[in-house]
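User: I've been going back and forth on whether these two constructs are worth ordering. Before I decide, could you fold them both?

Assistant: Sure. I'll take them in the order you sent them. The first construct and its structure tokens:
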Amino acid sequence: MINRNYHTHTYLCKHALGDASDYLERCLKLNYLTLGISDHGPLPEEISRKITSRRMNFQEYVEIYLPMLKDAKNKYANKIEVLGGLEIEYFAGYDEYYQKFLNDLDYLILGQHYLKKEEELINIYGHLSKDDLDLYAKTVSLALDTKYFKILAHPDIFTWRIDKWTDQCEEVASNIIDAAIRNNVLLEVNANGIRNAIQQKRLLNYQGKVNYPYPRYEFFMLAKKKHALVIINDDAHAPNRISDQYTKLAYNFARDLNLNIVDKLDLK
């Protein structure tokens, strides 16, 4: 039964619709037990000035996002569990930054959309070199070892432009999965990846089955082999994307592989 989602965006990220109440009203109609709001977190100024990334800034986080979460928790206290979080990238050397978020919120999701390569920032959706793929594995592993994060969003996003699964893909996946296991981090089966693949016609094939750049059969087959825990999230950017057709496909994907699914986030 689908009754929880922990990966939810709001209008503050500049590429989503709705505020916390809009999503919660949708969830109440679906008899959800928990909704986690986890919009894209603001990045340190030295990082944000180097990239074009649509997301809230730190002032919006303090003056709009945190009050929105507080109001939603109060308003819906007796109707549904409301949690506040962020989806955010990890950059080494900013521990106080992440600690502040952890003090303010219930949880953090690692969504590594950018990689720091010397003074350059690399977009994970671009064409990644072999060195870039290794850097992704190293960055994600380092991030998870900080124990700041409860969920690794779209862990297989590095294969967005990779059609053929290679030995390096297997090695990158193995390193990421091992890092998640040793830090009790949940690997996310991301419904929005299925949406993007279908709408952008990026469908792949795996042994006669429809496969996606992410969530990717090869990645999650290895996760199953290693007994990693997974969670299924909408990565919703509009209220009507909570529990939509792509959510159901994500659940079908996970069940087809008989993955070790966790449906409730442990906040301890």
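The second construct, handled the same way:
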Amino acid sequence: MKTVKLSIIGFGAVGQGVAQAILQKKDNLADMDINLVVVAISDRTGACVEPNGVDLEAAIKRKKEKGSVATTDLTSLDVIRDIDHNIVLDATPTNIEDGEPGLTYMLEAFRHGRHVVTSNKGPLALKYNMLCDEAHKGGVQFRFEATVGGAMPILNLARDALAGNMVMSIEGILNGTCNYILSRMTEESLSYKQVLGEAQELGIAETDPSYDVEGIDAACKLVILANSIFKMNVTYDDVDVTGITKITPESISLAGAEGMVIKLIGEVRDGDDAIIKVVPKLVPKNHPLAVGGTLNVALLRTDMAGPICVEGRGAGSMETASAVLSDIIAICKKEF
């Protein structure tokens, strides 16, 4: 059985979700001839390191009880540079300002010949080409399915299942918080502020929801799609972005009277009519993009397969862990 050593950098909801997934899927991994060993976990306060494998249950418990996973004062960079392992999982929070600290962690991993899997959108939205170039120089894989649709596979769908097709455009709902707010406004004729407060109470929206409701999160995901699938060489600044904060019950009611719903839609296509934008749009109630609640959905238009639609949960620790684990398994199958 192939032993593959992994570090988890960042141990918030995503990092803990991945640790939980590894525990749950140990037998499934063994069936694939993979022995996945987490040799280090780090957070802002330090790291725990065990060359023979960190006790993941104890690490999760320690994080929940003490707010830190650390048993040493080693930093995340110390782990990436000095601990013997094959794959770095960067599960640090997204920072759209400068991509840090994830950007530095990824570059350091590439320089030390370590494969990288990430759920962190910030570095890719700002420095996609540089990251891919550095991974290529290091002779390692760089995979990031979890950055776009959570559990909903878009990148791997386009890369693998639709290999040989030309993807001509992608449009979809890429932020579950916005979709929840718009869905509730539609169902109950409530105001934006009322539903936002409800979403915050339920933990669907953050205390500061601007990243979601202003369309920033969806725009970051769109940049990753544009660069990875369409090779467009764009950054967040190239996206035309409008959020949902000015949508009123009246506008939703008018849309409903015409058999339409309002959804925050991200759209990207290349060519002479290239476009990359996130904007509220009218969508027919029976359209594949008219999903409700916190669901995400993407419609890929291809030259041979025609339109392909995929939907799923775009957030959540275990849902994101699903995408992360699929990337880790893909690397294991190819490289070890």
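Notes on the second construct follow. The mean pLDDT is 95. The domain at 2-150+317-335 is CATH 3.40.50.720 (Rossmann fold).
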